[in-house]
From TrEMBL:
PROSITE patterns: TAT (PS51318). The lineage of its organism: Bacteria, Pseudomonadati, Pseudomonadota, Betaproteobacteria, Burkholderiales. This is Twin-arginine translocation signal domain-containing protein.
Length: 173
């Protein structure tokens, strides 16, 4: 069957409507807390899966240490997001909302199952696809995730030596 311009446009509009409906459903079932961003449930699982993909090669090898490092980084990312202006917090909340909804996750990342079962290689592949995607929105989402995770990781003074950062100037601290 040949795809016509009309069929392509209808399919695009239908997909946009489905994503908007999914976002509306998520906002209805997960109202924004009055204090700003909330990292809970599937959104936390998404970040827990994204952290090791972005920090590949820097996390500890021992499973218990690795789990603690991922959880600590996720908590620091959450704290960093809470320090953003409310409008930016809402944008990040919307991103994690889309990543939490099954159909949107499948469409945007290609991951068929939930975040808890996502393989690091699959997460790294979708992040790489977003990094070079033709849509600026996905490139921006990648950059936000990348910067938040690296900021969360390197906000811990224990990781400063790896990048040669001596810490803040003593006179300013």
């Amino acid at each position: 069957m040949e795809t016509t311009r009309r069929r392509f446009l209808k399919t695009g509009l239908l997909a946009a409507a489905l994503l908007a409906a999914g976002g509306g459903w998520y906002r209805h079932t997960h109202p924004a807390p009055p204090h700003g961003f909330a990292l809970d449930g599937e959104a936390r699982a998404a970040l827990d899966a994204i952290v090791p993909a972005i920090l590949a090669g820097t996390l500890p090898d021992a499973p218990a240490d690795r789990t603690r490092a991922i959880a600590a980084t996720t908590d620091r990312v959450h704290q960093a997001i809470l320090g953003l202006p409310l409008s930016a917090q809402q944008e990040v909340q919307d991103l994690f909302g889309l990543l939490a909804i099954g159909p949107a996750r499948r469409l945007l990342t290609g991951l068929p199952d939930g975040w808890a079962g996502a393989r690091e290689a699959d997460v790294a592949a979708f992040l790489q696809a977003w990094r070079v995607h033709r849509l600026a929105l996905l490139r921006t989402a990648y950059a936000a995730l990348h910067d938040l995770v690296l900021g969360g990781w390197y906000s811990d003074p224990a990781h400063w030596d790896a990048i040669g950062y001596p810490g803040p100037i003593k006179e300013l601290a």
